[in-house]
Amino acid sequence: MLLCRILSIPVASISIIALFIALTTDYWLVAYGPAGIAHSGLWQECMDGNCWTPTKANEYILATRAFLILGSLAALASVISLTASFMPCDCGFLGGVFVTSIVAFTGALFTLVGVVVFTTESWGKNRDPQIQLTYEWSFYLAWVAFPMLFLTGIFSLVAHLCPSRPGYENV
């Protein structure tokens, strides 16, 4: 089904962009307190405009980084596989669209594991009642990438299971 293959490309591309922005920005957690505002991401922490890279990152941060990087690479592979699926090639059962669905589902799983690890480890982190700790837009971008990669996998699987009907191109 050509429509599903075509829809998969922008959805997968947007998920790559969302994952890249989530990985590189430092607005995963924001703390509002009497001393000011602080925000942190996967690579650095900032307070009052001064940013620094922690000398030793927590294990859950390292796990989140690793899984989101793997999810990004899988999303990139799905876009490449989808683009290659438009090239004429007789690859049999493991054609480009089937491979794309597997890779997209794998990327969605990596992304889900990464953000779940971050969420569960940072949920009860705040012990001070004067500080309000909230998740911010970088965190939510990572969560948005998960259903988008899952949709890419679904669209690709539908495209694989419902091949196009013969038409004028076969005449």
From TrEMBL:
Subcellular location field: Membrane
Predominant localisation class: membrane
InterPro entries: PMP-22/EMP/MP20-like, PMP22/EMP/MP20/Claudin
Bilayer disposition of the protein: Multi-pass membrane protein
A Pfam family hit: PMP22_Claudin
Keyword terms of this UniProt record: Membrane, Transmembrane, Transmembrane helix
Keyword Iron-sulfur recorded: no
Stretches that traverse the bilayer: 6-30, 66-87, 93-118, 139-161
Keyword match Phosphoprotein: no
One GO cellular component term: plasma membrane
GO BP of this protein: defense response to protozoan
Protein name: Natural killer cell granule protein 7
Taxonomic source organism: Podarcis muralis
Taxonomic lineage of the native organism: Eukaryota, Metazoa, Chordata, Craniata, Vertebrata
